[in-house]
């Protein structure tokens, strides 16, 4: 209804309401719908960005309309190239859910948890589709929020025997290991973390390559999450040209991924193409999934949060007799 004030759902509530076991199947379905390019399923333009030059950052706008599902949303995300050791956040996000018929805002949802969890869940979907089925060693390059969300989902759904972590500082890597109860090993270099790993996750704020093809085991799967600007890199040309490259959005990768743009690598397929069965999952090859993040991922995540919030509110009123 257009007269209802919007619901505000804060970070701690999103953490309580969003679970990977419910989120992953919805994201798989959304990725498949996106790759069909059916405007009744998903309309999602490439993210538009406004440079925040004074602060070395960008504001990104990520609108999505899912007509058949009745979902209209946009994410507003600010992301920055911070100095090492900066206390300022690298990413801040908010998701707005609207009523497509009335045009009013239904909910304003903190985007931090949604961004971290949907990104990690899509990386996990890429691994489910593309990694070697007997993968044992996971390497994570990065120690921030995205590193933690990736650690959480990858260890929840895959039986890795070893998890290695590398960060720009040894202290950061050791702090990360403590935060996960010591169930990972801090490495002194990115090379040490990566050599022999079956799955490699890059979740850094780097603008220059931190992962080099000569370190990567043949047949390994890389989920590359950082470097979301056309002049930023996480991977070198050797890796980009040797690997079979998959993306969430072909248009997004060609427009926004420095790893794709500057290496001249070809995007072989979208994850949705593999989910739809129109392109193969080449598990025996070295594969790179280049994640840019998409509005449709935020849309289905926000809808799930809002639906769970409504169900919880109904239960509360029922029990309180109101």
UniProtKB/TrEMBL annotation:
Q: What does the organism's lineage look like at the top?
A: Eukaryota, Metazoa, Chordata, Craniata, Vertebrata
The protein's GO terms of the molecular function aspect are: pyrroline-2-carboxylate reductase activity; thiomorpholine-carboxylate dehydrogenase activity; thyroid hormone binding
From the Swiss-Prot or TrEMBL record, give the protein name. Ketimine reductase mu-crystallin
Q: From its record, what is one biological process in GO terms? A: thyroid hormone metabolic process
Alphabetized InterPro entries for the sequence: NAD(P)-bd_dom_sf (IPR036291), ODC_Mu_crystall (IPR003462), ODC_N (IPR023401)
Q: Which gene encodes it?
A: CRYM
Native species: Amphiprion ocellaris (Clown anemonefish)
* Enzyme class, first EC level, given as a word: oxidoreductase
Cellular-component GO terms for this entry: cytoplasm
Q: Gene3D superfamilies, per this entry?
A: NAD(P)-binding Rossmann-like Domain, ornithine cyclodeaminase, domain 1
Q: Which reaction does it catalyse?
A: (3R)-1,4-thiomorpholine-3-carboxylate + NADP(+) = 3,4-dehydrothiomorpholine-3-carboxylate + NADPH + 2 H(+); L-proline + NADP(+) = 1-pyrroline-2-carboxylate + NADPH + H(+); L-pipecolate + NADP(+) = Delta(1)-piperideine-2-carboxylate + NADPH + H(+); (S)-cystathionine ketimine + NADPH + 2 H(+) = (3R,5S)-2,3,5,6,7-pentahydro-1,4-thiazepine-3,5-dicarboxylate + NADP(+)
Q: Which domain of life is it from?
A: Eukaryota
């Amino acid at each position: 209804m257009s007269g209802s004030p919007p619901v505000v759902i804060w970070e701690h509530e999103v953490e309580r309401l969003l679970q990977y076991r419910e989120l992953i199947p919805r994201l798989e379905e959304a990725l498949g719908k996106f790759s069909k390019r059916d405007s009744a399923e998903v309309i999602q333009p490439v993210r538009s960005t406004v440079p925040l030059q004074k602060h070395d950052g960008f504001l990104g706008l990520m609108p999505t309309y899912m007509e058949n599902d009745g979902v209209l949303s946009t994410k507003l995300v600010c992301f920055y190239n911070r100095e090492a050791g900066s206390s300022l956040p690298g990413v801040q996000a908010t998701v707005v859910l609207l009523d497509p018929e009335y045009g009013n805002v239904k909910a304003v949802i903190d985007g931090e948890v949604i961004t971290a969890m949907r990104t990690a869940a899509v990386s996990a979907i890429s691994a489910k589709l593309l990694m070697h089925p007997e993968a044992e060693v996971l390497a994570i390059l990065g120690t921030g929020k995205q590193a933690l969300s990736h650690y959480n989902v990858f260890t929840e759904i895959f039986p890795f025997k070893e998890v290695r972590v590398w960060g720009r500082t040894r202290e950061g890597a050791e702090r990360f290991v403590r935060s996960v109860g010591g169930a990972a090993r801090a490495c002194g270099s990115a090379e040490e973390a990566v050599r022999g790993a079956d799955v490699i996750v890059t979740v850094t704020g780097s603008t220059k390559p931190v992962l080099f093809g000569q370190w990567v085991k043949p047949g390994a799967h890389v989920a590359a999450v950082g470097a979301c600007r056309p002049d930023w890199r996480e991977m070198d040309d050797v890796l980009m040209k040797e690997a079979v490259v998959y993306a969430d959005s072909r248009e997004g990768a060609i427009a926004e991924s420095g790893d794709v743009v500057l290496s001249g690598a070809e995007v072989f397929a979208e994850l949705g193409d593999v989910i739809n069965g129109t392109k193969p999952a080449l598990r025996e090859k070295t594969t790179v999934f280049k994640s840019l993040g998409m509005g449709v991922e935020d849309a289905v995540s926000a809808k799930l949060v809002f639906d769970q919030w409504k169900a919880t509110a109904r239960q509360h009123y029922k029990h309180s007799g109101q």
